[in-house]
Amino acid sequence: MARNTFGKNWAVTTFGESHGAAVGCVIDGCPAGLPLNTAEINAELARRRPGRDGGAAAVSTPRAETDECEVLSGVYEGHTLGTPIAIIIRNMNTRSSDYDELKDIYRPGHADSTWDAKYGFRDYRGGGRSSGRETAARVAAGAVAKKFLIENGITILGWTESIGEITAPDFGAPDFCEAEIERNPFRLPSKDVEKAAALIKALRTEGDSIGGVVRCRVTGLPAALGEPVFGKLDAALAEAMLSIGAVKGFEIGAGFAASRLKGSQNNDINANHSGGVLGGISTGAPLEFRAAFKPVPSIAMEQQALSKDGAVRLISIKGRHDVCIAPRALPVVEAMAALILADFVLEQRLARVNLPPYADGHA
Ligand SMILES: Cc1cc2nc3c(=O)[nH]c(=O)nc-3n(C[C@H](O)[C@H](O)[C@H](O)COP(=O)(O)O)c2cc1C
C-alpha cells in the first residue's frame, strides 16, 4: 500500500489517477537555493505530452492535455527553499465515457485484472493509477532533479534506439545525429524517420501497436556514485526503469550482449562495456543503459478479453492510445534516471570522513 514514495535522500511521492482531479508529486530532500521556475518544469512536461505536433499525432495518443503544472510549495522567488516541493498537473482532457464498457472487462496486457485482484475496488477510468498519466508526476519531479544535476555538471541524453525492427545508428556512429532527436516525433537520432512514420501509420490503420527501446547516456558523472550492496547504481536504475509501466527489460552497458563476449573482449577499457558502473559504483565514464518497452496494450483491433465473471468477450479498445510508447516515454526514462542520480549525489556527501576535495584526488 505505502509504496508510492521513491528515493531516500531525494524522496518523491507521486499521487493521482488518470481521470481524477490531478496527478502530482511531492519532492522531499531537494536542497535550498536551486534556481527553479515553473516554465522549466512545463518544458519537460511538454516533452512527455501527447500530440506534441502534427508529426507526433501519428505516433502519439490524441489526448490533448495542456499539462501545465502548478507549484504549490517549496519554491520562493525562483529558488528552492529546502522544504517539500509540491507540484500538481490537473487532468483536463479526460474522456471517461471511453471506459464505460471496460468497467467489468479486463483489457488484455493492461493492469485491470491485477488491480482488481489486489484492491477489489478501483478507478477503472483510463486505468486509474496504472495509467501512463501517472508518469507526468515523475517527469515534473525529474525536471527538478535534472536542474540539480546540471548544477553538478551532470547531463542526461535519451533517444529512441528502436521502434519494432527499425534500429537507430549507435551513439558515435557517423549517421548518429544528436540534434535530430528532439526534431522528429519518434526521437530517433537520425534523419531517416520515414520508415518509422510508415510503420506507425500502417499499425494505426490496423489498430495495432508496437514495442520500442529507449537508450540513455549520462555524462559528467563523477566516479563514486552508488551504494553497495543493496543500493548499487545499476540495481537502483533497473528498479527505477522497471517501475515505469510497459518497461519489460533493462540493460546496463553491453547488457545481455556481454553474456556472449569473452572476458578478454568485455574488459576493454575503451569500450565502456560496463556502461559506466563497476561494483554498483559509477566509474566516471558515461553511464549507458537501455529500457525496453512492450507494445501498448490498448489496441483498437478486436481481441479476446476476460471479463470479471470469467467469460471471454471480444473487445475493441476505444480511447486515445499511443502506437509506440517509447518516444513519449523517453522523458520518463530520463526523469527516473535523474531522480536516482540526484539521490546518489546527495548520498555521496555522507560517504567519507572528510569533505571533498579529497587527498586522493577524487572530486
Ligand atoms: C508514458 C506512458 C504512456 C502510456 N500510454 C499508454 C496508453 O496510451 N495505453 C495503454 O494501454 N498503455 C499505456 N501505457 C502502458 C501502461 O501504463 C502499462 O502497460 C500498464 O500499466 C500495465 O503495466 P505493465 O505493462 O508494466 O505490466 C503507457 C505507459 C507509459 C510509461
Describe the fold and architecture:
This protein has 363 residues and is of the alpha+beta class. The chain has one domain (5-348): 4-Layer Sandwich (Chorismate synthase, AroC fold). Helix content is 25%, strand content 20%. It has eight helices and 17 strands. A five-stranded antiparallel beta sheet has the order 1-2-3-7-4, covered by helices on one side. β13 (277-278) and β14 form a beta hairpin. The longest helix is centred in the last third of the chain and has 23 residues, at 326-348. The chain binds flavin mononucleotide (FMN). Flavin mononucleotide binds next to α8.
- CATH class bucket: Alpha Beta
Low-confidence stretches: 52-59
Domain count:
1
Q: Report the span from N to C terminus.
A: 40 Å
C-alpha Rg (nearest Å): 21 Å
Overall pLDDT score: 92
Counting DSSP H or I runs of 4 or more residues, the number of helices is 8
Ligands present: flavin mononucleotide
CATH architecture tag: 4-Layer Sandwich
CATH T-level fold name: Chorismate synthase, AroC fold
Strand order of the largest sheet: 1-2-3-7-4
Approximate helicity band: 10-25%
Task: Indicate the structural class.
Answer: alpha+beta
Task: Identify the quaternary structure here.
Answer: single chain
**How many strands in all?**
17
Measured by DSSP, the beta-strand proportion falls in 15-25%
Question: What string, H for helix and E for strand, traces the elements in order?
Answer: EEEHHEEEEEHHEEHEHEHEEEEEH
- Fourth CATH level, the homologous superfamily: Chorismate synthase AroC
**Judging from the principal axes of the Cα atoms, what is the shape?**
globular
The biggest beta sheet is recorded as:
5 strands, antiparallel
